[in-house]
Each structure stands twice: as C-alpha cells, then as structure tokens.
Amino acid sequence: MASTKPSPDLRPARINALGEFAASIAHEVKQPLAAVKLNAEASLKWLEQDPPRIAEARAALQVVLQASVAAGDMVRSLQAMTSRAAPQRSLFFIDDAVREAVQLLRGELRRQGITLTEHYGLDHYQLDADRVQLMQVVINLVLNAIEARARTLALQTALVNGALCISVRDNGAGIAPALAERIYQPLFTTKHGGTGMGLTLCRSIAQAHGGSLWHTSDQAGTAFHLSFKEYTPWTPSRS
Prior knowledge:
It is a single chain. About 45% of the residues lie in helices and about 20% in strands. It is α+β, with helices and mostly antiparallel strands. The chain folds into 2 domains: about 10-80; about 90-235, 2-Layer Sandwich (Heat Shock Protein 90), CATH 3.30.565.10. A hairpin with a 2-residue loop joins strand 6 and strand 7 (about 220-230). The longest helix has about 35 residues, at about 10-45. Pfam families: HATPase_c, HisKA. Its EC number is 2.7.13.3. It is an enzyme of class 2 (transferase).
C-alpha cells in the first residue's frame, strides 16, 4: 500500500505555506479586532455619561458590528485565496466600499493623532469585484501609512487615464529605492512586529481582479496607487 505521507521535499514548502497563511490571518484580522476594542470602549464611555449619550454609543456599537463582520469576511477571503478559489465578484459602487473600509480605521487614526483627508470622485462608477478583498487592500494601505509614522494622510478616488484609481498618500519617511520591489515579497518587512504579508496580499488581490498596485516615494512621503481598467459607469437604475 502506497504511503500517504508527504514527500520530504514537499514539507518545507508546506510549512512555508502554513506560515504565510498564519501570518496573513494575523495581519488581516488585527485591525478589525482593534476597531472592535476601541469602539466598544468608546460605547461604554458614552453610556457612563450622565445623562448617557445614547446616539454616540449607538454609532460606536454600529462600528463594532461592522468590524466583527469584516473580520469574519476577511478570514473567509483568505481561505478562498489559499485554495486558489476565484474572487466572489459582485457589482458595487467603489466609493461606498472605500468609505466602509475607512470607517473601520477612524478610531485608530484618532488614537494616533493622524489627520486624514478624503476626496471621492468615483460615486458614479461601479466595480465588478470581490468587495471584501477590495476593502482589505484599502485597510492595508492606510495601515501601512499609519505604521510609517505619517502624521497626515490623503485618500483619493478618481478616474485617471481611463482607469479607476484609489490612492493613499502619506508624509512618512518614504521607501528606499533598494526596497522598491522587496516590500511586495511574502514575509519581508521593515517594521518591528510586522508580518510582511500586507502588501503581498494587496498586490495579489489587485492582480486577481485584472488591476495593478504600485507606489511612488520620495522625501515628502509615499503614495500607493490601486487601479482597475474594467468598470461599469453609473446608471439611473440605482435606487
């Protein structure tokens, strides 16, 4: 009877794959769980006021709900990517998904004292893509800017040269030219405690949707750009 044990030559590859998957889960669920904690604490604070500030507590609890759902969705998305399943595509308004992703980060931005400016120019454009995965990319790009010790961030969505483009700019330390491509490699990180999976996942998601991810960097900071050439313009059928 043939042995079912994996070949010794395959074991390192499987161990590496498991390590990458574990690092991916740790990286992706960290921010939604942080949003749960920050907004649950905020809700308790509002309810302890005299009189209780019900509207503020309700808003914070709504973010807790959104973040908990996002964490579960992201784990399922990672499982699908690991099994090489196709993205779960649906038609959605791209600015709506970006705004939802940013909402999960507002507590962290306030805690870090970071100013975020937002400019949305794609309200009339839809994307046929995996909404959860797009949100993962936006969250990762903003978190990268936070971890780069930026004090100001600018997020913009716009139609650029015929493609839908999401850009996140920061005024951090910038990225050395020697690291320009290495930062997209699995498990490579320049950050203390980093997993080295964020940008790897971002680029994989972009490519799986026929899009692209790249960055520009100088002494003034870094800008990451996510673009898609295939999209659907707004139609009056939106209710």
